[in-house]
């Protein structure tokens, strides 16, 4: 803006020459007012963003840090196909899953170990070293005798061992949960045990330093940039004796005497001058961006200084607590205020022994000064000094709230397999089993499934299980109750597999939509009320019994309790030859040393029609009411649809004397003479198998 104004004014007053002079003056003013801030050391984003570019800087890590690293090798995506479905009238579906193997370079110096690993912000390796994904992981610590990674060598042939550099290799990492792409990793690297001293960091670059410690530090870029950052943390300036750079914050000061000449031909003694910069030239507030261990090493910002003042932002690639970062920001503000004062001292040749960064005292004046520059001019030595700032008090600060990934143990896989009637408004034409799995730990996610219908002679992949389901055991079974009414008196107490599992309540409308449906030892049950009793125990009330025609099964104490959430259950369609046999299902989770197996007998519950109801005999005619595998929601308010190829019934009459007779009928009635003691069984003949019988014994109430 000043350039434009003064150019116009100069042109108006002095013509072209005046315009040029005005432009030069304006540019100088603009530079002073709007000068860009210099870069304060390495950026934090250089550690937070994973790259795979040639020429990327590899940081030297100290202490404990969280870094993204650089991808140095990877394979193409590894594709796996799986098929499901293909039953009568249903097309087969082909599923594709992908995995990848890749290597990530972490540090340009050796490390001791790695801790947690995040992938797209999700924890995939816990602090205990437990992987939460089914993949191989190898860590190369960067020793000078480091061997070549076998996977990289098998894929590439001749390959470097990257000795002196720490890197990790993921082998066959599943990508389904990351959008079928290689996720962005960040790794907690343990380069040194405990906090690291400034002396150790400076020593790695051939310098010497005193000062405090930090939890972690990432050195990248030029050596000068790294040393400048260390000086900011320590609150001093570097000095050199021609061989070694040193940073001594508490060094013994050098006393300057009043002897010598000020300049050629000048009076003897020590000439002094003083200059105080305007308040606006010093930083009134400083904001330090750092990695906060309390926030899983996410970036934090701590500010110190006057309210409303524009803060100078300092990016510090170090792991510091919130209090330490705020104390550092306060120290920077204090130093900026004190160092507004500049002293210039002119000495004789004795001043040649003074070097920038040294601490001195002035004869006749209190306080200590630090040498900013040394200038030899006119047979004299001119020193520019700044006061040594006081050590500020330790400040306290809060890290604030951070969204951190839970480091939950995965635990062993728990598996339950059951044959169920169709839970959808769709007829099943093949036997089906439903698989629900969970883990003993809250970190369990999924497990790979295999099934066999020939007693393990062959196994068929079934993809992954659903998300962790809710599985438990019935501790107290409810008493018998009809399936036609809400069981308000019945109570069922269950113990869930983990204390963190939760059951919810449901109103009548939600129950009508199928909420809170559970398999309870052979019976499908819904519940409207769930009360936590503590320690993973729940009391269930307002029960709906025998749902979808399962009233013949009875919940018993000790039987399995399995919540049937469509998002957490996986259905496996079986061949018709599986009817009457057993099906075995194996699940392999991340923490399972061996696959977990469950089995069930296929009795046809998934494909048979439900038993008829309302069986009665009057005036020589036996009548009953047909039920269907479909239409349980009764949305059209008319008769239940016929879910079989045709309506056909088998009526078995067992006389009191033991004689047995079978009748067939195409309707829900048949004319027959019955006497006291006779027993009647009515079964619907379905497309694949018969229903369970409805039973009537003459003479019984």
UniProtKB/TrEMBL annotation:
<feature type="domain" description="Tip attachment protein J">
    <location>
        <begin position="226"/>
        <end position="374"/>
    </location>
</feature>
<dbReference type="InterPro" id="IPR056490">
    <property type="entry name" value="Rcc01698_C"/>
</dbReference>
<dbReference type="Pfam" id="PF13550">
    <property type="entry name" value="Phage-tail_3"/>
</dbReference>
<protein>
    <recommendedName>
        <fullName>Tip attachment protein J domain-containing protein</fullName>
    </recommendedName>
</protein>
<dbReference type="InterPro" id="IPR032876">
    <property type="entry name" value="J_dom"/>
</dbReference>
<dbReference type="Pfam" id="PF23666">
    <property type="entry name" value="Rcc01698_C"/>
</dbReference>
<feature type="domain" description="Rcc01698-like C-terminal">
    <location>
        <begin position="470"/>
        <end position="562"/>
    </location>
</feature>
């Amino acid at each position: 803006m000043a350039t434009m104004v003064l150019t116009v004014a100069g042109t108006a007053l002095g013509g072209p020459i005046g315009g040029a002079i005005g432009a030069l003056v304006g540019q100088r003013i603009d530079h002073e007012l709007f000068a860009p801030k210099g870069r304060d050391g390495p950026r934090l984003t250089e550690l937070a963003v994973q790259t795979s570019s040639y020429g990327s800087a590899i940081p030297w890590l100290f202490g404990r840090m969280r870094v993204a690293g650089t991808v140095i090798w990877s394979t193409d995506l590894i594709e796996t196909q799986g098929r499901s479905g293909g039953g009568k009238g249903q097309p087969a579906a082909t599923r594709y899953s992908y995995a990848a193997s890749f290597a990530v370079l972490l540090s340009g110096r050796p490390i001791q170990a790695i801790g947690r690993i995040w992938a797209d912000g999700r924890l995939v390796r816990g602090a205990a070293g437990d992987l939460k994904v089914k993949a191989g992981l190898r860590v190369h610590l960067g020793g000078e005798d480091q061997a070549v990674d076998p996977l990289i060598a098998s894929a590439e042939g001749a390959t470097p061992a990257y000795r002196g550099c720490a890197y990790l290799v993921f082998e066959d990492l599943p990508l389904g949960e990351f959008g079928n792409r290689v996720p962005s990793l960040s790794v907690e690297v343990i380069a040194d045990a405990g906090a690291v001293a400034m002396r150790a960091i400076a020593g790695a670059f051939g310098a010497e330093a005193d000062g405090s410690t930090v939890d972690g530090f990432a050195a990248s870029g030029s050596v000068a940039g790294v040393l400048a950052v260390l000086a900011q943390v320590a609150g001093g300036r570097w000095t050199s004796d021609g061989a070694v750079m040193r940073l001594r914050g508490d060094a013994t000061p050098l006393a300057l005497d009043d002897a010598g000449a000020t300049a050629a031909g000048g009076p003897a003694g020590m000439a002094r001058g003083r200059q105080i910069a305007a308040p606006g030239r010093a930083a009134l507030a400083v904001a330090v961006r750092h990695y906060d261990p309390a926030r899983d090493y996410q970036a934090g910002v701590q500010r110190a200084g006057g309210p409303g003042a524009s803060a100078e932002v300092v990016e510090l690639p170090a792991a510091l607590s919130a209090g330490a970062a705020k104390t550092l920001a306060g120290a920077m503000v204090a130093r900026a205020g004190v160092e507004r004062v500049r002293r210039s001292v002119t000495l004789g040749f004795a001043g040649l022994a003074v070097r920038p960064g040294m601490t001195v005292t002035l004869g006749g004046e209190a306080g200590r000064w630090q040498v900013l520059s040394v200038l030899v001019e006119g047979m004299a030595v001119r020193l520019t000094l700044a006061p040594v700032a006081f050590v500020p008090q330790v400040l306290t600060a809060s890290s604030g709230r951070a969204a951190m990934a839970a480091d939950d143990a995965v635990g062993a896989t728990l598996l339950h397999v059951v044959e169920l009637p169709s839970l959808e408004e769709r007829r099943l034409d093949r036997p089906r089993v439903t698989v629900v799995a969970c883990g003993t730990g809250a970190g369990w996610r999924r497990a790979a499934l295999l099934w066999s219908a020939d007693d393990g002679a062959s196994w068929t992949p079934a993809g992954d299980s659903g998300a962790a389901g809710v599985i438990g055991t019935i501790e107290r079974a409810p008493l018998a109750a009809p399936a036609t009414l809400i069981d308000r008196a019945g109570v069922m107490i269950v113990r869930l597999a983990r204390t963190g599992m939760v059951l919810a309540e449901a109103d009548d409308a939600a129950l009508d939509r199928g909420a809170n449906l559970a398999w309870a030892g052979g019976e499908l049950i819904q519940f409207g009320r769930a009360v936590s009793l503590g320690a993973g125990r729940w009391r269930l009330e307002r029960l709906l019994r025998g749902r979808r025609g399962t009233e013949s099964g009875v919940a018993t104490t000790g039987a399995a309790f399995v919540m049937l959430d469509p998002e957490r259950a996986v259905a496996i369609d079986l061949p018709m030859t599986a009817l009457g046999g057993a099906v075995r299902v194996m699940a392999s989770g991340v923490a399972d040393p061996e696959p977990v197996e469950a089995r069930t007998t296929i009795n046809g519950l998934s494909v048979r029609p439900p038993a008829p109801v309302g069986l009665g005999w009057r005036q020589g005619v036996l009548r009953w009411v047909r039920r269907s595998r479909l239409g349980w929601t009764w949305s059209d308010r008319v008769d239940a649809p016929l879910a079989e190829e045709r309506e056909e019934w088998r009526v078995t009459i067992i006389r009191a004397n033991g004689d047995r007779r079978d009748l067939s009928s195409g309707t829900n009635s048949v004319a027959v003479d019955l006497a006291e003691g006779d027993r009647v069984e009515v079964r619907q003949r379905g497309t694949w198998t018969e229903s369970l019988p409805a039973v009537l014994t003459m003479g019984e109430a």
